[in-house]
Amino acid sequence: MFGFPEFVRKSLRTYLCEWYDCILLENTGDVKPDIVLVDEGNEEALDEVKKTAKAYGLQAVLLSAVLVISKMGKRMDTIRGYKKWERIPRPIGPSNVGKGLMGCLPKLDELKKYGPEAAADIQDTRSRFDLRTGELSSDSTKDISNGLPICQNIPGTKR
User: Fold this and answer.
1) What is the pTM of this model?
2) Does 6-143 carry CATH code 3.40.50?
3) Annotated region Disordered: where (predicted)?
4) Tens of pLDDT, residues 59-95
């Protein structure tokens, strides 16, 4: 977990460990994480994650949380070295964290199955080829409902 304010880290730790039975690892040279979680709006954290790309990028999915409002509608800047990524939108609660984790699982399976050759074998209908980085990536949570009601036929609302 990279770059979150302490109160967010505490909540994420609870969701990940107690709700989803994940094991959190420290960023040391001998760990092999499946998912690397980063606060997308924290530039220092992004710099730190960029340093992990060589060690983790071929085996882990980068799970990026959007905490900064100004980043919400913008495309995620991919990190060279990570072949697969997923994005968690605000609010960072158990539902969105769970959807982000679920989006990581098929991508993680592909990385484990194909290893360094995964790039040629990971295209799906939602993948996009990023010409800047030469990497394939997608945000597969965009098609998953967040469970919030949609304003339909509510007096006083405009569609």
Assistant:
1) 0.71
2) yes
3) 131-159
4) 999 999 887 666 666 666 678 888 888 888 878 889 9
